[in-house]
């Protein structure tokens, strides 16, 4: 048993409120259950109760054992001076106010349906991948959809924090923030930090000055990232190194990044050389990325068009310097573009709309619903237990659900868990 169960029961009125008495034999009638704020202090604020006919207004505190009041040292904390009711599962001791009077205690275990308690323990003691996987078929589509909308907002809010930090660092230069985020996500998980450092070392002002040439941008990316430090025989390498030496002096660039660039365990199409070349060509060919992808309403089809980018000619026959390979165009795939949309474009659109004071994110949700779902272990496991995954709206929310609720055992803060407990009690 955990306190969150008591919170759930109180918040959702899952107990018999018709004939309540305190352990001090006082008649209790609940006028207002209070607000569950989850902050420092009592669990529920601004409750209203009739205790033996007298109206009381104040706060409600909950513990598994009444003696936990002293274990948590509430008697020395002024935040608890206005507690009018102590709700417990196990009444083992009286608790006193500073004036010596006893705080009324409601022993909630006397008023809860035993079936609800059994369902709670069944839910929390399951040995399955997630506690509720055998009961998910009980959840209707409407409940799932509403919960997924909330989960997606939560997920986007999580991604807001690093974006807000970048806005502060760049003095609200939205175009530079887009450049840094794009660069980072071109590096994927393995090289993301190194790519982000590269973007910050170069600065967006330098990119704007050199974007007339994809070759110049390649030289900047490869040079600052440290990929031109080991001598090679290819003429193209030597040309890039020469150009980088000139650009480094011209723009007074600092030393290369400290984060190592990795090739190991990457598919050749994800090699940093290829991704930097694609990024260079994107920035060279597309002049108004921010207005086109973030400011303006745009269809998913047009987003894919923006990212219809290939590599420079040299990289069509190479993955690394000094080693020729079979010729291929090496365009950005839709699957890779989807990752850029999910990790860069849509989160940034969300933050930008919030800065404009907009609260309707339906257009963002619609794009999520048109993108194909990711394929990873979490998504595949949900599919195996018959949870429908049709698009990125589904996959993104399920990933968030698993990591932030299921793994953290927050069943009673999850709409699905609450619904299962409320069903057929």
Q: In a few lines, what is going on in this structure?
A:
The protein is an alpha+beta fold and 425 residues long.
List keywords for this structure.
49% helix, 18 helices, seven-stranded mixed β-sheet, 2 domains, 425 residues, single chain
Major β-sheet profile: 7 strands, mixed
Secondary structure: number of strands: 9
Quick one: overall form? elongated
Estimate nothing, just give the exact number of structural domains.
2
How many DSSP helices?
Answer: 18
Beta-strand proportion: 5-15%
Q: What is the alpha-carbon Rg in Å?
A: 29 Å
Can you walk me through this structure?
The mean pLDDT is 94. The chain folds into two domains: 3-112, no CATH class; 170-369, no CATH class. The chain has helices at residues 3-11, 68-71, 114-124, 141-169, 174-186, 188-202, 204-210, 214-224, 235-250, 272-285, 289-295, 300-306, 313-316, 334-355, 362-370, 377-384, 392-406, 415-422, and strands at residues 20-21, 27-32, 35-36, 44-51, 54-65, 83-90, 105-107, 318-320, 323-324. α4 packs across α14 (334-355), α4 crosses α17 and α8 (214-224) crosses α9. Strands 1, 2, 3, 4, 5, 6 and 7 form a seven-stranded mixed beta sheet that branches. The chain is 49% helix and 11% strand. With 425 residues, the chain is α+β, with helices and mostly antiparallel strands.
Q: Which SSEs are present, and which pair or pack?
A:
Layout: H1 3-11, E1 20-21, E2 27-32, E3 35-36, E4 44-51, E5 54-65, H2 68-71, E6 83-90, E7 105-107, H3 114-124, H4 141-169, H5 174-186, H6 188-202, H7 204-210, H8 214-224, H9 235-250, H10 272-285, H11 289-295, H12 300-306, H13 313-316, E8 318-320, E9 323-324, H14 334-355, H15 362-370, H16 377-384, H17 392-406, H18 415-422
Helix pairs in contact: 3-18, 4-14, 4-17, 5-6, 5-14, 8-9, 8-10
